[in-house]
Amino acid sequence: MVLSISSTTVTAATLTHAVSYSEVASVTLLTWDFFITLSDEIDLVWKQRWTPAKALYLLARYLPWIFQLALLAINTDGTTGLIFTLDQCRKWMIFQAIILQMVVTTVDIILMIRVFALYNNSRILVVSLSTAFICEISYLSYNLATVTPKLGFAEDCFVRSSPPSFIIYWIVSLAFETVLFVLTLAKFFAAVKDGWGKRPVMREFVQDGTWAYALVFVTMAINSALYKSVHSPLAGICFTWLLSVLSFSASPSSP
Question: For the chain: N or C, fewer Cβ within 10 A?
Fold first, then answer.
């Protein structure tokens, strides 16, 4: 019995350390991305006047980074070093859910603005896509509000299990991202047909949009699979990577 408990303890410690190392890698890569895009950001963002678009960019770009630094502050060695009650864990998860939804919402708005620009702010597109966006955000918020109280936690407040309905959150998010991506590709192919799709600006727009969509899609899909099938602290190992990917998608290199 003693050996069994010891083995379980070692395994749990190993898993929480793995999550911690993943968090460190995620925030390190994001910090590196800040440095390599800093010159573009200064020219394209910081030197420009304050607008709602600029505020959205800064929120989507830096909130994930600031939040990840906060996570590291209490989890830098694979354990919080703190003892949480179940109620405290739930409150902490609610806070994380709010941050996630704020970032997802902000990035979706930025991506929508890009699509609107491609279609010259078509009234039909603006109304239909905005309606779909409101429905998406309303459901995602509802889903998080109902799922978060049902999450299972490890001793260090790491998520180790989630209800089956949590996968719907990722499916709905991916569906909306896919709509935006398809609209971007449709405009690109129409531009190629009209003879101006080969212009550098258009090519760069689609290329950056493609990698951003691919990264978000893959990261959300992995998160969905982990939360559904893994019942250990590893269930949330890609959570910070999703935050980083969402921040990448708002970077100056992604028009």
Answer: N
